[in-house]
């Protein structure tokens, strides 16, 4: 029989990014949390954490975290069926990973009705759409939106639709760097704005236009800040068409190559045995996402 106090200590350390924060959440001393992790490792017979900054789960730790996530969800179902004397009436909380562009565009509208109808709180972790599945694999979240179709073991994936990205810049920037057209010579001089080190959309776009080349770039890990930098004339970049409808209509941003873009497929990943609330969130996304995202078929 697993000791869930020890498992919750492991989950708290990973989710809070350290022993000190985990101790505050659990109402324990940092030493007590450390002792619980050591006891868990002794019982498992293997390390469950890499003592890095922040701490990261080992392979054994990931399997335990996956188990904890599913047990939490099943406990929420049990509380709905059987009143618990120690139940404090707090709303359920689901930890979800998604890409910043989804959060900045369609996500809130898709889940709003469920969150208003259910006593549900969301804890959102933002990752690039190409790497968010790492959170699922590490057992840190109950679901994630990402660009990968194949689910991790114990999970399912649901196609949500495709998000259309456009290569855009301010008119002044286009006049400065692309007055003679968009070619490799101009692209090697014109700075781009890139979301982060894992963001390869610009490279994919240029490859599809037979314009692959190296280019200077800013790094801006913020969807709203990204658009502000483009609007200010600091570079060109790939932005969801959903996010810049007003800017395109007003002419504040223009496409580098009109009518050409990149479609990014998005998938919802969720645990198979996640309980009713996770199933309801999955159904909500299945119904609502097509209002914003294009069909994948």
The largest pleated sheet is described as: 7 strands, mixed
**Order of helical and strand elements:** HHHEEHEHHEHEEHHEHEHEHEEH
How much helix is in the residues?
Answer: 40-55%
- Give the radius of gyration: 22 Å
**CATH architecture classification of the domain at 163-264:** 3-Layer(aba) Sandwich
Verbal overview:
- This protein is α/β, with parallel strands linked by helices and 297 residues long.
- Among the domains are: 1-90, Winged helix-like DNA-binding domain superfamily/Winged helix DNA-binding domain (Arc Repressor Mutant, subunit A, Orthogonal Bundle), CATH 1.10.10; 163-264, D-Maltodextrin-Binding Protein, domain 2, CATH 3.40.190.10.
- 44% of the residues lie in helices and 20% in strands.
- The chain is built from 13 helices and eleven strands.
- The protein has helices at residues 4-16, 19-26, 30-44, 59-81, 100-104, 107-117, 133-137, 171-177, 184-189, 201-208, 223-231, 245-250, 275-288; strands at 49-50, 56-57, 92-98, 120-126, 143-146, 155-169, 192-194, 217-219, 237-240, 254-255, 261-271.
- The strands form three sheets. Strands 3, 4, 5, 6, 9, 10 and 11 form a seven-stranded mixed sheet that branches. Strands 1-2 form a two-stranded antiparallel sheet. Strands 7-8 form a two-stranded parallel ribbon.
- Belongs to the LysR transcriptional regulatory family.
- This is Transcriptional regulator ArgP.
- Keywords: DNA-binding, Transcription, Transcription regulation.
- It holds the Pfam family LysR_substrate.
């Amino acid at each position: 029989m697993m000791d869930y106090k020890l498992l919750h200590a492991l989950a708290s350390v990973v989710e809070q990014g350290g022993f000190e924060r985990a101790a505050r959440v659990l109402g324990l001393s940092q030493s007590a949390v450390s002792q619980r992790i050591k006891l868990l490792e002794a019982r498992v017979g293997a390390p469950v954490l890499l003592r890095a900054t922040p701490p990261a789960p080992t392979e054994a730790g990931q399997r335990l975290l996956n188990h904890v996530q599913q047990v939490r969800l099943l406990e929420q179902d049990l509380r709905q069926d059987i009143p618990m004397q120690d139940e404090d009436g707090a709303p359920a909380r689901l930890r979800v990973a998604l890409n910043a562009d989804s959060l900045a565009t369609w996500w809130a509208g898709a889940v709003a009705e469920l969150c208003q109808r259910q006593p549900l709180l969301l804890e959102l972790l933002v990752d690039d759409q190409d790497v968010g599945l790492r959170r699922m694999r590490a057992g840190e979240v109950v679901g994630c939106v990402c660009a990968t179709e194949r689910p991790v073991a114990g999970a399912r994936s649901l196609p949500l639709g495709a998000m259309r990205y456009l290569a855009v810049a301010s008119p002044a920037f286009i006049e400065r760097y692309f007055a003679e057209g968009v070619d490799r010579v101009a692209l090697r001089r014109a700075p781009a704005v890139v979301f982060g080190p894992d963001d390869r959309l610009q490279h994919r776009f240029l490859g599809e236009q037979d314009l692959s080349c190296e280019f200077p770039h800013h790094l801006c890990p913020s969807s709203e800040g990204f658009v502000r930098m483009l609007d200010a004339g600091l570079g060109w970049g790939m932005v969801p068409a959903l996010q810049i409808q007003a800017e395109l209509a007003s002419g504040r941003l223009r496409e580098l190559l009109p009518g050409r873009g990149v479609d990014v497929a998005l998938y919802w990943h969720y645990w198979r045995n996640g309980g009713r609330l996770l199933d309801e969130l999955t159904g909500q996304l299945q119904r609502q996402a097509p209002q914003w995202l294009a069909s994948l078929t």
